[in-house]
Amino acid sequence: MKKTTGIALALLLAMAGYGFGQAGAAPDGFVRINGGTFTMGSPANEPGRYDDNEGPQHQVTVGSFTMGKYEVTQKEYEEVMGTNPSNFKGDNLPVEFVSWFDAVEYCNKRSQKEGLTPAYTINGRDVTWNRSANGYRLPTEAEWEYACRAGTTTAYNTGASITDNTGWYKDNSDEKTHPVGQKSANAWGLYDMHGNVAEWCWEWADSGAFPVKRGGGWRSPARFVRSAYRSTYTRGGRGYDVGFRVARNAP
Ligand SMILES: [Ca+2]
């Protein structure tokens, strides 16, 4: 009887995880993002819109995936890589001063450490993604924006105008990173999608010349932490306001 109850409860929990809203069953520190279709990019009349590279808006369908609730912290990075390159030091601060290549290497090493199949084949600076692998990886730009918006269509996932609670940016950061998860989560349970550190995505823009980062960071003006804002960095470049968060294919 007791055993049956336990199984029923587990089933109920599993069903709840998949049945209610976007966020569901996922490992600790992760949120399951159920796939769907959304409007990617910003409308031409969005205040603060930076560049035509945010549009034209288009419909994008993304599959289900899991994503870190937080930016990768320095503690998490050091446990896997054995080093901490960050400028601002603190276990629970987001790791920064990591290049796109550092980020994909972290993903693979963490996958290996946890017995998962690495998502990337890395030969120097030639990186290919095995899309069926279950290991850690960077989100695609579409996944990132879909997750950031969490169903919103406004400039920020907190509304049309930035507020102190939207995230850490130029006007409230005191010119430094902050421990992850201090501001409110978005509707799907993700923290710091706006600001703190900008986050590497899988894609390279400008005909594959430069890696893309999203969300802006602690020194970005409000317009550069908008959901649709896209920016790039030099090949192999590192910045005190650039980190990443990891994703995985949904089980
Ligand atoms: Ca961020």
How would you describe this protein?
With 251 residues, this protein is of the alpha+beta class. The chain has a single domain (6-249), classed as paralog of FGE (formylglycine-generating enzyme). The chain has 4 helices and 12 strands, in the order αβββββααββαβββββ. It has helices at 2-19, 74-81, 100-113, 141-149; strands spanning 23-24, 30-33, 36-40, 58-62, 65-68, 120-123, 126-129, 198-205, 210-214, 230-232, 242-243, 247-249. A 4-stranded antiparallel beta sheet has the order 1-2-5-12. A 4-stranded mixed beta sheet has the order 10-9-8-11, with helices on one face. Strands 3-4 form a two-stranded antiparallel ribbon. A hairpin with a 4-residue loop joins β8 and β9. The radius of gyration is 18 Å and the shape is globular. Residues 1-21 have low confidence and may be disordered.
